[in-house]
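Support request from a user on the community tier.

User writes: "When I paste my structure tokens into the form, the page sometimes reloads and wipes my input. The last time it worked, I copied everything first. Here is what I submitted, just in case something in the input itself triggers the reload:"
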């Protein structure tokens, strides 16, 4: 009999398997069961789309970085005041961007804020990106994870979200904009219409730069910006990241009308003081708890070592924490490991900076290989050029010109290095920039700011940097060659450029002048070590001193001295050091020395002949001899001031030739350029070099006449102070017979203020002249 709900069927051939059936003979009976499948709640479905490892308190992130006690107090307070609307400066801001260099402590701050807000019921959700974690190094789980966490702390929100996701469980797979709108905005708008709100209103997104897709980084920001700008919901976003180019550009592109606040982790937030406190506390902890604490010297560590570590950190906590992890290792003596850090002991097989090195390698690995080569040259230029790290005064655009880079290429090269190095406009204070005579406003340069002092240690240690090793000697040779090439190219148009400035014509190519100055400086500061490479001999041999001198001074006028640095630098710093180095190296470069000295002599011969055509210009040559021979302590004196005032018409003639009266480049004060004078004096004192231009009694007599003529015509300028008296005595002792000088001496003996040393020198000269 057929039972209700049963349907007789004829057995077909070869029945393989039957479910819920009874088989009898040639027929079987199937029982039809009408079962309604259970529908899963939408909120439960959302759990499959989230990244639990991105929670601030996830097990995968156990022992995450947090702010050390009693550090970062200012920045933590600033953020909490923004969250709780206690800061009038940020009260209208719905987004706060916390940014800083790699290793500055952004994640530790974000973690600490998350824990504080979680304890106070203010945290709606958090997402900590992690580059090496495949569950949280992309943007897909971001908004589902934030919505899920908000549902846990806000039951009414969870109910609304559950309804939305039950209707469309695929929402977590949609675009970022759709996700944010559907699973965050819609539930919140529905609750707002019902006058329901939650105290938990803060979302924290940390490490946005660790999302692997840069385009997604920007999309995340764009949808959040649109959300904040369009809807007036009480919801805030704390976003922490490195200031990478794409992220910074996106933040700058949106007009948020006061809804965005920024915090840069720099010196304003006492990072050096905080790092010092962190190191002090951690070293004390090692002293108190380390298994080998009884082996530690006392006191330990040395205060000087502590100061060194603080400075080396450059305000970045990653350096300090790396040091502590290494020094505090339980299987080694802490003081020995600190010696390794201080380079007082070999590291052996240890890798004390492994964490820091991995950070640097990751940053450089993200760059094109060709770009890395140029970046390393630019980074190396200031340290090789000045033999110290004076990055703050080195214009990177000038370096770019020396390296033959196109306009804008320097900025492009450093776009992806913002976490370790940035370009910024810098005003060099007048007292620190000695490149001009008048320095009321200082000088603006685009400087390269290296945010990690330890980066140089990394780059110069091949065992640490590997493919990014900066071979200083090889780079030095390459840069010197590029500088020589650039200087030689500049010779073709430098004269015309200087002439325009001298004539007060408009001239907007001062970048070329700055580049020329930097090239000269790099060339001379590395000449001694660069000459160890025979390949450079030909390059240095081709450097034409005579042409260089003529190009600069043929077109140099009074205005130029105030506007261009390299004119003074070439004369007072470059030339003397150039010859001193060649002379010091001796036989190995004797041919180079002889070649360039001969070239220099030819220039002096041409110009000095002109100085002997006027008694007052001749005075300048005898002044050179006096300064070098007597080493007067007051050689700065008033020479430039009173001589220029007395003979303004002659200053241009001097400046456009040997520029003997212009002050030294290196200190910017009214000091005579002693080293430059030395080389001219050697020429004047050696008849085998100067021939008819050597100093003699007639020329010393002319120098003495110049002083006395000046006193006769403009006595208010010549007070016979220390420098003037000593020079006159010096010149009279060496002067030959001169009728004009005898007359001037006799007149001066009557009118001159009482100066026994000068009177005695004049009387001695008159007796010797026997006239």
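"...and here is what came back when it finally went through:"
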């Amino acid at each position: 009999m057929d039972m209700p709900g049963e349907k007789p069927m004829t057995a077909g051939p070869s029945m393989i398997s039957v479910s819920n059936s009874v088989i009898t003979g040639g027929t079987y009976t199937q029982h039809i069961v009408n079962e309604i499948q259970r529908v899963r709640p939408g909120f439960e479905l959302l759990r499959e789309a989230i990244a639990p490892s991105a929670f601030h308190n996830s097990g995968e992130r156990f022992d995450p970085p947090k702010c050390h006690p009693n550090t970062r107090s200012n920045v933590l307070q600033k953020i909490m005041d923004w969250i709780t609307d206690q800061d009038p400066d940020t009260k209208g801001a719905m987004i706060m961007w916390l940014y800083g260099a790699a290793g500055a402590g952004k994640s530790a701050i974000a973690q600490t804020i998350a824990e504080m807000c979680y304890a106070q019921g203010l945290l709606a959700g958090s997402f900590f990106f992690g580059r090496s974690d495949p569950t949280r190094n992309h943007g897909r789980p971001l908004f589902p994870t934030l919505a899920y966490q908000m549902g846990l702390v806000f039951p009414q929100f969870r109910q609304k979200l559950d309804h939305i996701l039950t209707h469309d469980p695929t929402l977590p797979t949609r675009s970022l904009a759709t996700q944010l709108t559907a699973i965050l905005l819609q539930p919140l708008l529905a609750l707002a219409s019902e006058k329901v709100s939650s105290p938990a209103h803060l979302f924290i997104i940390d490490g946005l730069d660790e999302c692997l897709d840069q385009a997604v980084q920007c999309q995340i920001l764009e949808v959040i910006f649109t959300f904040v700008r369009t809807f007036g919901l009480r919801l805030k976003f704390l976003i922490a990241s490195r200031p990478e180019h794409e992220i910074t550009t996106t933040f700058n592109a949106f007009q948020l009308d006061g809804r965005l606040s920024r915090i840069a982790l720099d010196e304003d937030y006492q990072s050096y003081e905080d790092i010092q406190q962190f190191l002090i506390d951690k070293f004390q902890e090692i002293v108190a708890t380390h298994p080998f604490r009884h082996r530690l010297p006392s006191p330990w560590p040395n205060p000087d070592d502590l100061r060194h570590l603080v400075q080396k950190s450059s305000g970045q906590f990653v350096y300090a924490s790396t040091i502590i992890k290494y020094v505090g290792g339980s299987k080694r003596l802490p003081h020995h490991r600190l010696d390794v850090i201080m380079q007082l002991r070999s590291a052996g097989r240890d890798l004390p900076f492994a964490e820091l090195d991995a950070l640097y390698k990751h940053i450089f690995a993200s760059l094109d290989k060709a770009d890395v080569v140029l970046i390393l040259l630019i980074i190396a230029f200031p340290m090789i050029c000045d033999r110290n790290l004076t990055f703050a005064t080195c214009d990177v655009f000038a370096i770019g010109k020396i390296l033959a880079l196109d306009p804008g290429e320097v900025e492009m090269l450093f776009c992806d290095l913002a976490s370790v190095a940035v370009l910024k406009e810098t005003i060099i204070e007048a007292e620190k920039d000695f490149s001009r005579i008048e320095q009321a406003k200082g000088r603006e340069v685009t400087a390269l700011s290296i945010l990690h002092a330890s980066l140089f240690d990394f780059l110069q240690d091949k065992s640490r940097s590997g493919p990014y090793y900066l071979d200083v000697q090889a780079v030095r040779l390459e840069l010197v060659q590029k500088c020589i090439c650039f200087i030689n190219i500049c010779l073709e148009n430098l004269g015309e450029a200087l002439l325009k400035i001298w004539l007060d014509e408009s001239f907007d190519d001062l970048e070329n002048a700055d580049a020329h100055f930097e090239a000269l400086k790099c060339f001379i500061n590395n000449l001694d070590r660069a000459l160890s490479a025979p390949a450079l001999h030909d390059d240095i041999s081709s450097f034409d001193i005579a042409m260089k001198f003529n190009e600069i001074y043929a077109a140099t006028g009074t205005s130029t001295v105030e506007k261009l640095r390299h004119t003074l630098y070439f004369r007072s710093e470059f030339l003397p050091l150039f010859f001193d180095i060649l002379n010091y190296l001796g036989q190995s470069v004797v041919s180079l020395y002889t070649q360039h000295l001969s070239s220099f002599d030819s220039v002096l011969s041409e110009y000095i002949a002109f100085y002997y055509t006027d008694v007052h210009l001749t005075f300048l040559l005898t002044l050179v001899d006096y300064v070098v021979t007597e080493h007067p302590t007051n050689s700065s004196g008033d020479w430039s001031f009173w001589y220029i005032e007395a003979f303004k018409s002659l200053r241009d003639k001097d400046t456009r030739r040997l520029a003997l009266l212009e002050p030294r480049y290196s200190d910017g004060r009214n000091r005579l350029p002693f080293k430059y004078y030395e080389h001219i004096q050697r020429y004047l004192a050696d008849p085998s070099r100067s021939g008819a231009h050597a100093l003699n009694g007639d020329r010393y007599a002319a120098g003495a006449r110049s002083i006395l003529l000046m006193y006769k015509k403009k006595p208010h300028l010549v007070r016979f102070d220390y420098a003037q008296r000593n020079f006159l005595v010096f010149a009279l002792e060496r002067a030959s017979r001169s009728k004009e000088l005898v007359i001037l001496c006799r007149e001066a003996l009557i009118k001159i203020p009482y100066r026994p040393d000068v009177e005695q020198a004049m009387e001695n000269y008159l007796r010797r002249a026997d006239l």
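Agent notes: The reload is a front-end session timeout and is unrelated to the input. The longest helix spans residues 590-611. The chain has five domains: 1-35, 44-269, 271-352, 371-552, 589-769. Escalated to web team.
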